[in-house]
Amino acid sequence: MSGWLLIIFLLLLGGLISTLGDLLGSKIGKARFSILKLRPKKTAVLITILTGSLISASSLSLMILVNRQLRVGLFRLGDLQKKLQDSRQLLIPLKEERKKLEIKINGKEKELKQLEKSIIALRNGDVVIRSGQSLFVSEINFTNEKNIKSQIDNVLINANRYALKIVKPESKEIRNLLLLRKNHIEELQKTISKGGNWVINIKSVRNVLSGENFVYAFPEITKNKIIVSKGEVITKITFDQKDLDKKVIGDKINLLLSSSLAEMKRRGSLTNEIKLRSESVKKIKDFLNTNNKTNFELEAVSLKNSKTAQAIMLELNINFLNS
After folding, report:
1. CA-CA distance, 76 to 83, in Å (whole number)?
2. Which one of 96, 144, 226, 300 is CB 3.0 to 4.6 Å from 260, fit for a cystine?
3. Residue 323: which residues within 8 A CB-CB, separation 6 or more?
4. Neighbour count for residue 252 (Cβ, 10 Å)
5. Euclidean distance between CA atoms 170 and 165, whole angstroms
6. Sites in the chain below the pLDDT cut of 50
7. Of the candidates 301, 306, 233, which has an alpha carbon nearest to the alpha carbon of residue 269?
8. pTM (two decimals)
């Protein structure tokens, strides 16, 4: 039933009952009828009161009958309030979880914007330190527990100095750009305290643009071991008579050196360069001037023992091959 129809019906019902009550009261008054030994006038008043109560009761009953919300409000209000309170209590952890998710989403959005910025900068050539690039490599020898922290601090100072020079070359202010997680430093200390010789490699976490205020980095630690021994042949390459052209010879020598560096990397070397003995090039030139129709083999031979973080020193040896 619509609200307007309910109001009109209640008005009509109230008017009808009040009219009937008034008529009944008048007749009882004229007839001098008595209820509960009351005087006729008071009996008429009592009838009028009962009539008014009947109007209220009938109106309320009708509204309860036709209006579900009113029924619920009158008879289940307490239960509903309790359920509402329980629901509010359940919402508290959900709201907290929502805040955490919003914080994570905001963080991911910032990372995405930074990634987009890095990609644009990479295309424009503004990246000065690339993700995974080594900032500083150093050997650490364990002597006692007390000097571990000072050695690690020295490595970080040098890595920060390098980062500052690359990222802010015009800055004369010495400031800390390098940021590492505290637990990474603690893990370094634990590993070194086991004893032995180690190599620490401080690497960039992400691409860094020129002028940025921070360089996020992480440390890698490996055992400092001999990668190549003195006199060891690392790689070799053969030359036929058809290869005795200056360009071909140059390309093959470059290939030999690149293969040697790749082999050192495979063994665990952290160096990015190979140093070639200067006399090796002259020796090859002199050999080719007198033996331009001879098949030969070129070997890349280590000049010294080289450890994980040390540069590789090579010389090129020539071996004759049967034609």
Report:
1. 11
2. 300
3. 294, 295
4. 15
5. 8
6. 1
7. 306
8. 0.52
Amino acid at 242: K
Strands 197-204 and 226-228: unpaired
The Cα 126–Cα 117 span in angstroms is: 10
Please name the residues in contact with 310: beta carbons below 8 A apart, sequence gap of 6 or more.
Answer: 227, 271
C-alpha–C-alpha distance, residues 32 and 185, integer Å = 107
Alpha-carbon distance 88 to 94, whole Å? 10
* Strand pairing class (178-179; 215-223): parallel
Domain boundaries, the chain: 3-75, 127-224, 227-320
The label of the residue with tokens 């004369």 reads 172
Give residue-wise pLDDT tens across range 257-266: 889 889 888 8
Helix boundaries (H) for the chain:
3-30, 40-66, 68-75, 77-124, 148-167, 182-192, 246-267, 278-290
Say if strands 274-276 and 306-307 run parallel, antiparallel, or are unpaired: unpaired
For 259-294, letters b (16+ CB in 10 Å) and e give: ebbebbeeeebbbeebebeeebeeebeeebeeeeeb
| CA-closest candidate to residue 263, choices 285, 284, 239, 236 | 236
pLDDT, residue 70, reads: 60
